[in-house]
Design goal:
The chain is globular, with a radius of gyration of 25 Å. It contains 13 helices and 15 strands. An eight-stranded parallel β-barrel has the order 3-4-5-8-9-11-14-15, surrounded by six helices. It has a three-stranded mixed beta sheet with strand order 10-12-13, with no helix packed on it. Strands 1-2 form a two-stranded antiparallel ribbon. By secondary structure, it is of the alpha/beta class. About 35% of the residues lie in helices and about 15% in strands.
Length: about 400
């Protein structure tokens, strides 16, 4: 059912004579019959934030759709994606493959995506459209109009000022292509001398350095440069993949070292202090933090550490919950519910089938569980506030 729209009531305050201070002199006293009537002075009409107003207009199904970021198969907007935007009300998408189509080719896709925003599908809310544009081997957007970005280990040798300037230029290229969200910067810290053994980060040269301050300083420079050109960013992969064994894309990754107050978390603290829009939570197991849950499903990692200790109030986004080996044994609907219940907000799914199953599971649980419904509302509001900051709301 469509929520009732917010209503603001104008309150009028009549300003009268002050009762304070000494009595007026006889020549200054007002006559018994005032010649003028004080004019009522209205207070300012209460300002309701755009995100709050839009939230009140959404159906539950539209609200749930905002929680999902769907992969574009083959980096195209196909009939499957269009159907899911219309029927599942999917609110964000991302480019899943490396493309050499260049700025103009990608812009044709992003323009077609934004054209899908409608009253029925998304409540006229625009889409976050994301890509992995880190540099080195993780640079999804290539071809004419896109710079060739060096790996993070090279970026980490530059001054913070130079890196911020170059990141702003890379972000301008993304904007020109219609991309408004970059899955970067990587804040994972790989201990010195262990790059070859660390499959997800070190062996791919995705780290800015080998200590938290170097990583944090350069990650914040990338964040600031991206923001300078109006691109949303996500710190990743909290609480760090720099000391895991295994790669979550292919197996279960485990960290037996990191603690809840670990010094290696400082890079993430610095990024949060730099006003990161999103924080991506890893799909690894941290035995010294929560031995019973992968980080993305852990109330300790999200609720206690990220929200509580570190004070992050932005959007908590998952790593890919659709097609990652680390979660293959868990039904898609359970993945979505467990992530949201742990405190997460936006769910990434590379492919459509698990994304659809997740939407159905969230609908079913929200319809019968008031506590979970409140969690869905909270997640949707965080996403709408982020979209408001990047001009994606219709007000």
């Amino acid at each position: 059912m469509l929520r009732a729209r917010l209503a603001a009531t104008l309150v009028l305050i009549v300003v009268g004579a002050s009762a304070c201070g000494p009595s007026a002199a006889p020549s200054q006293r007002p006559s018994a019959t005032p010649t003028t009537t004080p004019t009522p002075t209205p207070t300012a009409t209460p300002v309701v934030a755009c995100a709050d107003r839009i939230f009140q207009t959404l159906t539950l199904d539209q609200e749930i759709g905002q929680l999902v970021e769907l992969g574009l198969a083959g980096d195209r907007l196909g009939p499957t994606e269009i159907n899911m935007i219309q029927s599942d009300h999917i609110g964000s998408v991302w480019f899943v493959a490396t493309s050499t189509a260049g700025v103009n080719g990608i812009h044709a896709v992003t323009a077609a995506v934004q054209a899908q925003a409608s009253s029925a599908a998304t409540g006229n809310i625009g889409f976050f459209i994301a890509a992995n544009q880190e540099g080195g081997v993780i640079q999804a957007m290539q071809g004419p109009g896109f710079s060739q970005i060096p790996a993070a280990v090279v970026q980490g040798t530059w001054s913070a000022g130079l890196l911020q300037s170059r990141a702003a230029a890379w972000a301008q290229e993304l904007r020109a292509a219609g991309i408004n969200f970059n899955y970067a910067p990587v804040m994972d810290v790989v201990p010195p001398g262990t790059d070859a053994q660390n499959q997800p980060i070190g062996s791919l040269q995705r780290e800015y350095g080998h200590d938290p301050v170097t990583v944090g300083t350069h990650g914040v420079a990338v964040l600031a440069g991206m923001h300078q050109s109006s691109i949303a960013v996500s710190l990743k992969h909290f609480p760090g993949l720099g000391r895991v064994t295994g790669n979550t894309d292919f197996t279960t990754a485990t960290d037996t070292t990191t603690t809840a107050n670990d010094p290696y978390l400082q890079s993430f603290t610095m990024g949060i202090g730099g006003n990161a829009d999103f924080v991506m939570v890893a799909l690894a197991l941290y035995t010294k933090i929560d031995a019973n849950h992968l980080a993305a499903f852990s109330p300790v990692v999200i609720g206690q550490m990220l929200r509580g200790t570190m004070g992050f109030n932005g959007v908590v986004i998952s790593d890919d919950l659709g097609d990652t080996v680390a979660v293959a044994s868990i039904p898609p609907g359970t993945r979505a519910i467990d992530f949201l219940s742990a405190g997460g907000d936006m769910i990434i799914s590379k492919t459509s089938a698990p994304a659809h199953a997740m939407v159905l599971a969230i609908r079913s649980r929200a319809a019968t569980d008031p506590t979970f419904r409140q969690r869905v509302d909270d997640a949707a509001m965080r996403i709408l506030r982020a979209k408001q900051a990047f001009g994606l709301l219709p007000c």
